[in-house]
Amino acid sequence: MGTQGNKRLIYFLVFLLIIVPVIVGVVVWHLTRQNCKEGTTVKSTTNPAIYGTEPWTNLRLPKSLMPVHYDITLFPDFYDGNGWFYGNESIELKVKQQTTFIMIHFYYMNITKTELRKNGTNEIIKIKRTFPYKENQFWVIETEEPMRAGLGIVLDLQFDGSLTRAIVGLYKSTYVNSITKERRYLAASKFEPVSARRAFPCFDEPNIKAEYTVRLVHKQEYTALSNMPDMHTSVWQHDPHFKITTFQRSVKMSTYLVCFIVCDFEYLNMIAIPDFVSGAMEHWGLITYRETAMLFDPREASSANKQRVAVVVAHELAHQWFGNIVTMDWWDDLWLNEGFASFMEYFGANKSEPDWEMLSQFLTEDVQPVMITDAGVSSHPIVVDVTNPSQINEVFDSISYSKGSAVIRMLESIMGKQKFFKGIEAYLKAFAWGNAKTENLWNKLGNIEDGLSVRDVMDTWTRQMGLPYINIVFDSKLNKATATQKRFLADKTTKFNENRSPYRYKWYVLLDYITSSSETGKVWIKKQETITFDIPVNPIINKNAWIKFNREQTGFYRVNYPDDVWRNFASELNKNPEIMKDTDKSGLINDALNLARGGYLSYDIALEITTFLDKEYGYLPWKSAIEGLEYIEKMLMGSASWKSHDSEAADWDTMMKRYISATVPQEKIKLLYGMAQTKNIQLLHRYVDYAKNESLIRSQDFFSVLQYIAGNPVGTSIVWNWIRSNWDYLISRKYPEAGSGARGREQALESIKRNIIWVKKNKQIINDWICVCFDQSIFS
Predict the structure, then answer these.
(1) C-beta of residue 657 within 8 angstroms of C-beta of residue 398
(2) 358-379: pLDDT as tens digits
(3) What is the pLDDT averaged over residues 631-644?
(4) pLDDT mean over 244-273
(5) Which of 35, 164, 304, 545 is 20 to 30 A from 581 in CA distance terms?
(6) With the C-alpha atoms ordered 117, 73, 25, 202, is the resulting torsion angle positive or negative?
(7) Integer Cα distance of 205 and 187 in angstroms
(8) Is the entire prediction scored with pTM above 0.85?
């Protein structure tokens, strides 16, 4: 699916906005006349709270029985103002171990019939009781007699639910036909990670794969789509105004990859959804996209929009191998899906558009931003424990995606491209159509060199949070250097407990380098704190030479040098910016500004590194500098108000009208951003109110609008005051649920506290440096 710092304060605040769902009763509707008979519903007669030690209290499903095939019929009724779906299913199950319990996931739906029968004979299996266990979102079925191992059974269920509760699960989406201006509706689904249970009762874990036969009921003028090609469409026997489309039996897949769509769109092999919570979703056979991530009009959209489309498409196609064919065993290994797709997307986009130099952009788009996130004490390891359903949503963050891809990039550099991809090929073949864990990947990749396995090295990067910085000290007389690794923190004064990590925040680091005379070398830091080693050139002894560590910035670590060496880098780059590659210049700038941000380096030295940019034509150094300087700008930004003008209000109204009528998704986003830049306080207040109106601004864009407004110096306090005054409204609107925002709240608070300290410490230093620079005409 397909995500820093305080420069986006509202980004962090978004994590604070948690939904507290209200359980509402819904009208029970029977999909077929045969299923409308009285007495088919088995109701709970026992309070399940007293069974605290029973199997349903565990988050994970037992492996006592496994689904083989789902036969699902769904009727999403989104027509004429309706917003409900109704369904029934028959699930073929194989009993692996004798049991009297079946637990199946369901969430925000009514189960109105539960029956069990033996497969083949249809002999009824008597049910003792059923009940919901809400904590783990289980529908629990207990049988009168034990079901023996080897038995084939069929579970028949009937259910219904809402299409309008959220834009996950099975939901109702809206759009305006650009030609007729008519408001139209469709039904779409988004299940990853744990929302398939919102659409149909299922064994909703990634390592419980099954095959699916899907039937969708729809009006005649609408098209039904699912993972597989349709076999036939016929008149629905219960209402001649509707049709029912039956799809081919699917390949074996996880529940989160199932997809249902009913729409009046034309389509080829991919579909763009007007309301879509993610950028895209890699469903088997039917990839779905947010409109901005798929639709591109070269007459109105920018080159950056085109690049975004290419990257997202490449990401989803990569998932067909990393996620669909080989699926992570459990959500703690989500990075096996998302980290690899985020890594491979650069190769796909680079193959399509080599002029974009996407492999180099990896550094500024993923690696450098996530290093900021991972420097906080409220980060988490790539492989992270998941102990409740809300934590599953929580791991879909930049650590799983961006850090996951960054350490894969680092490993590819360490092993070499040929050896690395040979191991990846072996991994995909070994676990095709099944599930894998992180240790399975390491085993297939084998050893980096004799006596040093991939697992030894990479466990230190995936099973502890954070990253190191390598402090370099040069010998004053010999060509030797001493490297000391320590945990890099966004604020070096932050206290932390080393025992929280199984490796005490020490890493296997391949410290490589390149010199001013193009000599290269490397040395391993194997969880030691300090090593001393020979180097070909010493910049303390030879002022005209330099040695830059972390060559091309492939390592997920920062490097700090003595002040004089930093100044020497600045001097040499000012003489000739072409002395090193753009990736190395980008790395120097990013390290310097973030070391200063964390208190490891004085800002006057860090800022001096950027003074060669007036001679620099490369994208990467400028991108790294802009990111670092934007943080400074946000921290020192004034809060003065500007006088409004009538013409500005008229211009703003014109932009809003253009937004409403615009048909190009990227253009709509640009207009949303543009309207947030007004200096008129009244207009910004009006904008916040407009954002609440889903008939004007899509719900998926609501928090983006708040972020845009908060990024405007005039709008920061407006958004902050509005959030405090409208907390209950935000709680009722925000998805995912409460527990999923816990880590986000910690990160937001940690960031705010760091920023307060930063301003007190650095404001005067930066002000003095700027004054000196202008006095000396550095920027002339």
Answers:
(1) no
(2) 999 999 999 999 999 999 999 9
(3) 67
(4) 89
(5) 304
(6) positive
(7) 24
(8) no
E strand intervals along 274-405: 280-281, 288-290, 326-328
Task: Give the span between the Cα atoms of 50 and 527, in whole angstroms.
Answer: 49
Residue partners of 375: CB distance under 8 A and separation at least 6: 466, 467, 488, 489, 490, 594, 598
10 Å CB burial of residue 387 (0-12, 13-18, 19+) is exposed
Query: How far apart are the C-alpha atoms of 570 and 553, rounded to whole Å?
Result: 18
Cα 652 to its chain centre, rounded Å, is 33
- Cβ–Cβ under 8 Å, residues 192 and 256: yes
pLDDT, tens digit (0-9, with 9 covering 90-100), for 11-38? 322 322 222 222 222 222 333 333 333 2
701 near 672, Cβ under 8 Å? yes
Q: Is 283 helix (H, G, I), strand (E, B) or coil?
A: coil
Catalytic residues: 316
Residue 39: is its pLDDT beyond 50?
no
Q: Mean pLDDT across the chain, nearest whole number?
A: 87
Residue the block writes with tokens 């020979």: 534
What are the phi and psi torsion angles at 223 (to 5°)? -110, 135
Q: Look at residues 195, 158, 22, 172 and name the one whose alpha carbon lies nearest to residue 83.
A: 172
Separation of alpha carbons 157 and 41, rounded Å: 9
What lies within 8 Å, CB to CB, of 638 at 6+ separation is 713
The 99-105 sheet, strands edge to edge = 99-105, 138-147, 127-133
From residue 744, give the alpha-carbon distance in Å to each of 81, 106, 751.
36, 26, 10
Tokens of 198: 């919102």
The residue assigned the tokens 């904590």 is 135
Query: Helices 702-710 & 716-725, crossing angle to 10 degrees?
Result: 130
Q: Contact at 8 Å (CB) between 506 and 451?
A: no
Q: Per DSSP, which regions of 446-592 are E strands? A: 447-449, 452-453, 468-474, 480-487, 508-515, 520-526, 530-534, 547-549, 558-560
Task: Name the token pair of 679.
Answer: 């200096």
Can the peptide bond before residue 298 be classed as cis, meaning omega within 30 degrees of 0? no
User: Which tokens belong to 699?
Assistant: 């719900």
> Please, what's the largest Cα pairwise distance for the chain?
93
Angle at 66 between CA 63 and CA 70, to 5 degrees: 150
Burial of residue 674 (number of CB atoms within 10 Å: 0-12, 13-18, 19+): middle
Minimal CA–CA distance to 235: which of 224, 252, 219?
Answer: 219
Strands 127-133 and 447-449: unpaired
Helix/strand/coil (H, E, C) string of 587-608? HHHHHHHHHHHHCCCCHHHHHH
Query: What distance in Å separates the CA atoms of residue 730 and residue 659, rounded to the nearest whole number?
Result: 24
- Could you report the per-residue pLDDT of 595-611, keeping only the tens digit for each? 999 999 999 999 999 99
* Contact in structure between 579 and 514 (CB atoms under 8 Å): no
pLDDT of residue 777: 52
Chain segment 318-336, per-residue pLDDT in tens: 999 999 999 999 999 999 9
Closest by CA position to 171, among listed 192, 157, 150, 185: 185
First vs last Cα of the chain: how many Å apart?
45
pLDDT tens track for 88-100: 999 999 999 999 9
Q: Give the DSSP letter string of 20-44.
A: -----------SSGGGG-TT-----
* Strand partners for 312: none
Name the token pair of 70: 């789902």
E strand segments, 547-674 = 547-549, 558-560
